[in-house]
Structure formats: structure tokens, C-alpha cells
Recover the amino acids of this structure.
């Protein structure tokens, strides 16, 4: 019955202009009278602090009711909402994965198919779908697209460990080049009041972003990639074009043994597996971290004040990337992209929408996809944080006189919900007073990591609905099991050496060989 109702509703969308007289199929505003929809997303802060939304509302006459909560809280709320059918019109952010699109899009049809809506009302999103490989990667085995694509320039190595340069210099330490040298540095961070606040016991030598911890990528120091982050293939890697599961390799066990030793020596944050994002950020802002995994240091570190000797020397980079450590002759590191990444599950429109509302929402997203709006959502408002020099070229404005409150108001995390799909085209942003584009901190980090980066998985779906459903079941059991064992082994709740053989056998019992074959079939279709 649900599928029949959906089909009838969509037929109305695709055969006629929405019945609302206020709706404009092209141009702005989208509606002549104020309209709204509710968007559920994981994010920090308050809805009223997201400064780009009022700008978009002025353009479109569409008000977005933001339902914001931190990731773990919002994930639990979404689960309840889906079970009680009280979910909103749009779900966005990191809350959904490929399994959700399979189960709730292709399967239950809680999520609306979008390809015809996009073709009719969203030329900017259509442009993204027409980028080679994007439409194929977005289309599920049933032929439909259930989410809005997000193509973005991205560092080749997105999440990395960053090390506190100020602490290194204060203690007279060299940058570590091997895991053993890292341990010695972390011991010094632990024992020698590295942050200089007079308390020798408050330093946390090693921590990490709980939403993107991905400790398995550090197994690359021993020569294998067992990335466990936001990946369609957790713990798998491509090796010479073939898929390979790495969380059962001897080198992976070496990685576990090393980090278990660090944890036992109290060199790792005792909350590393239990803290939420705000707790992790809060400790970082207190200058407690020697090394932390993150997208960039700005995610967890409060820079030294301008005018201080530390700021004069390090600027906004008191932390720098930890080099790829040599735990073997040929270390590697997890490659997230070749410079451009497609995120496939960042926003869906649900069956809470009638045909008019679905058209309004897809047009609202399409307006967000313009070059100017996408850049404002990343860099801050035009005329306040950036100026437009020409099409695709922007420059930062002078913010040196801003106080802390203004800097916070227009900070990256406050200006927008940053996990939302957008399209930056080929935009470039110059620094204040600059006339040429200079390499960014992330560009320089990529250059340092580039010699060690492995192959990258293309975004593909399984070759059949049967494979898709089977892979979803197998991957859920395997990923949950591996993640739980990492936490148990590293934290000392269990012994990796005592359990290793049983662990490898259990992976096979969960269907690892079958899952590997399914993934290889999908990759073989490229």
C-alpha cells in the first residue's frame, strides 16, 4: 500500500507542475508565500547560529526548520523516528549509510526516488550527476537515485594524526619517524608537563575524533590499510586492483599490539572509545593533546592568541601532520580520494512530502548548489567573510579586528551544517590581500603523504539486488565485530594474542569470504 501511494504521488510530480499557485518551477523565490520544511541533521551548535540559512531563506522564501543534535544523540533519535514513522521531510548529514538507502530507499521506499525531480527542477544538481561516474555511482540496482550527490574537492588523505609542534619544541624533542620513536615522544608528553601549565598529570598524549577515529588506517605504518571510517568498504583495501580484507592480517595484529601497549602505558586517552565529539573537542581546546586524529587541527585546538610568540612562530598551525611512520620497510596510508570525493548518502527526501513539497525541497537544494551559495556555506557570507572577484574566484576579507565572539559566529562550524551536499564547481579562494592562490595547509599535508597513499575504492553498488541485500547483512555483522574487538584489545579488556585465531575463524563464520566475493564482483563491473 505504501509503495502504491508513493507511485501515485510521484506520477503527479512528473506529469504536472505542483498545484500550489505559489510555487515557481524556475527562478527565485521558489515560493511566493513563505514555506518551510524540517531537516534532521547531526551537527553541533544551535539552529539560529547557522548564519547561511537566513541568507538562503531570503533568496528562496523557504524556511528550513533545523533539527540539530550531536551525531550519537541524533542517530538514536533517528532510529526512534524511523521506527515510529515520525521522521521529518529531509534527513541529512552523516546519519545515513549505503545500507539505509538500500533498505529505506530501494526496499521500503521511505526515501523518495529523486532522478526525475532533479531532471525537472534542479539543473545545478543535474550538472553534478552528469560528471563522469557520478550518476552510475548514485544509481541503485533498481535504477533509482534516492539521495542528493555531494561532489567536493577533498584532501587525498582526509583524516590524519596531528602532533603538537609547540610541545615538541618545549621539550626539545625531534619529530618521530617510527612507531617506537612516537612512543618515546608520547611518554615525554605524559611525564614532562608538555603544555606548561604546572600540572604534570593533565596531558593526554594521544586521542582522536570519535566520529572519524579510524585507528585501522594507522595499521598502514606496518604496511596494511584497515580503514574503518566513513567508507563503503570498512577494513577492506584495494591491492593491485583486487579487494583485500586487512583486519585479519599479521601486520594488523602488530598494529593492535602497539596501540594496546600505548594504552597500557596511559599514553592514550582513556575515553578514546567512549567520548562524544563535544568532549573530544573540549579537551583539545584546553591544550591537553599531544597527538590527535582529526580532519584538521582546527577541529580540536584553540590557536594561540595573535601577538604571542607561539602565534608569531606557528601561526594557526601549532599542530602539524604526523609523518607516515615506518613500522616496516614499505609503510602506506589510507587514501580517501584522488582529490575529489563523491558522498552518496548526505541527504534524502522522505515520503512525508507530497508532490509540491518534494519539488520545493529539491529546488531549495538546487539553489544551495550554485557556486556562490556553496562557497558561502564553506567560507562564510559574501561581504562579511569573502568577496567575489570574478566567476569562481573569491578572496577572504580582513577579519583581523574581529573579537572572539565574531570569530566564533562566523567560524566554519557555525556558518552552516557542513555535512550537507553542495557543489563547489572549480571555485578558488585567495587569502586576504592575496592575488594568487597559495597551497593550503591541507595541500601541503597531502604532498607529504602522497608517496605513501594506496589505491582508492571507486563508489559502486553491488551488481544485483540480491548481492546488495546479502552484502548489507554480512557487512553489518563483520564491521560490528571488528570494531568491538579493536576497542577491547586496545583498551586491555581482552588479549589480541589469546583471541587471534578464534577471531579470524569468527570472521569466516560471519561470511567474510562471501562478502569479499560480492565486493569483487561489484568492482569488476567498473
Amino acid at each position: 500500500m505504501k509503495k502504491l501511494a508513493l507511485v501515485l504521488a510521484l506520477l503527479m510530480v512528473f506529469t504536472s507542475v505542483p498545484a500550489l499557485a505559489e510555487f515557481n518551477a524556475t527562478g527565485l523565490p521558489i515560493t511566493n508565500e513563505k514555506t518551510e520544511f524540517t531537516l534532521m541533521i547531526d551537527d553541533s551548535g544551535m539552529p539560529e547560529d547557522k548564519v547561511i540559512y537566513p541568507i538562503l531563506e531570503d533568496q528562496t522564501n523557504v524556511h528550513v526548520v533545523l533539527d540539530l543534535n550531536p551525531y550519537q544523540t541524533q542517530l538514536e533519535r533517528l532510529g526512534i523516528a524511523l521506527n515510529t514513522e515520525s521522521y521529518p521531510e529531509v534527513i541529512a548529514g552523516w546519519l545515513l549509510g549505503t545500507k539505509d538507502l538500500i533498505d529505506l530507499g530501494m526496499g521500503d521506499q521511505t526515501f523518495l526516488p529523486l532522478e526525475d525531480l532533479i531532471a525537472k527542477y534542479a539543473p545545478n544538481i543535474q550538472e553534478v550527476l552528469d560528471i563522469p561516474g557520478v550518476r552510475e555511482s548514485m544509481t541503485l540496482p533498481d535504477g533509482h537515485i534516492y539521495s542528493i550527490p555531494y561532489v567536493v574537492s577533498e584532501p587525498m588523505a582526509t583524516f590524519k594524526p596531528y602532533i603538537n609542534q609547540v610541545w615538541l619544541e618545549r621539550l626539545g624533542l625531534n619529530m618521530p619517524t617510527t612507531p617506537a620513536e612516537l612512543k618515546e615522544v608520547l611518554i615525554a608528553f605524559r611525564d614532562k608537563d608538555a603544555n606548561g601549565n604546572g600540572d604534570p598529570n593533565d596531558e593526554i598524549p594521544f586521542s582522536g575524533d570519535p566520529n572519524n577515529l579510524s585507528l585501522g588506517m594507522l595499521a598502514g605504518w606496518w604496511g596494511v590499510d584497515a580503514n574503518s571510517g566513513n567508507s563503503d568498504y570498512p577494513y577492506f583495501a584495494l591491492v593491485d586492483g583486487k579487494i583485500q580484507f586487512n583486519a585479519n592480517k599479521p601486520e594488523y595484529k602488530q598494529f593492535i599490539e602497539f596501540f594496546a601497549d600505548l594504552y597500557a602505558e596511559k599514553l592514550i586517552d582513556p575515553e578514546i572509545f567512549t567520548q562524544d565529539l563535544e568532549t573530544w573537542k573540549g579537551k583539545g581546546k584546553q591544550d591537553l593533546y599531544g597527538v590527535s586524529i582529526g580532519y584538521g587541527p582546527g577541529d580540536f585546538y584553540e590557536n594561540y592568541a595573535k601577538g604571542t610568540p607561539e602565534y608569531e612562530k606557528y601561526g594557526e598551525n601549532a599542530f602539524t601532520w604526523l609523518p607516515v611512520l615506518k613500522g616496516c620497510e614499505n609503510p602506506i596510508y589510507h587514501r580517501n580520494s584522488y582529490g575529489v570525493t563523491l558522498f552518496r548518502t548526505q541527504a534524502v527526501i522522505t515520503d512525508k512530502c507530497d508532490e509540491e513539497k518534494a519539488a520545493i525541497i529539491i529546488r531549495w537544494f538546487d539553489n544551495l548548489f550554485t557556486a556562490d551559495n556553496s562557497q558561502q556555506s564553506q567560507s562564510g557570507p559574501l561581504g562579511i567573510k569573502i568577496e567575489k572577484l570574478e566567476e569562481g574566484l573569491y578572496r577572504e576579507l580582513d577579519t583581523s579586528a574581529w573579537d572572539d565572539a565574531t570569530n566564533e559566529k562566523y567560524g566554519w562550524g557555525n556558518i552552516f551544517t557542513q555535512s550537507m551536499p553542495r557543489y563547489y564547481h572549480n571555485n578558488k579562494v585567495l587569502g586576504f590581500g592575496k592575488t594568487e592562490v597559495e597551497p593550503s595547509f591541507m595541500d601541503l599535508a597531502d604532498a607529504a603523504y602522497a608517496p605513501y597513499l594506496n589505491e582508492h575504492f571507486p563508489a559502486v553498488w553491488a551488481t544485483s539486488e540480491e548481492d546488495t541485500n546479502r552484502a548489507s547483512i554480512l557487512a553489518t555483522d563483520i564491521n560490528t565485530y571488528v570494531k568491538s574487538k579493536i576497542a577491547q584489545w586496545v583498551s586491555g579488556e581482552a588479549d589480541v594474542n589469546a583471541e587471534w585465531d578464534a577471531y579470524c575463524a569468527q570472521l569466516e563464520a560471519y561470511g567474510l569470504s562471501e562478502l569479499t566475493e560480492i565486493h569483487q564482483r561489484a568492482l569488476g563491473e567498473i
Q: What stands out?
A: Residues 3-21 have pLDDT under 50 and may be disordered. The chain has three domains: 2-152+341-415, 160-321, 465-524.
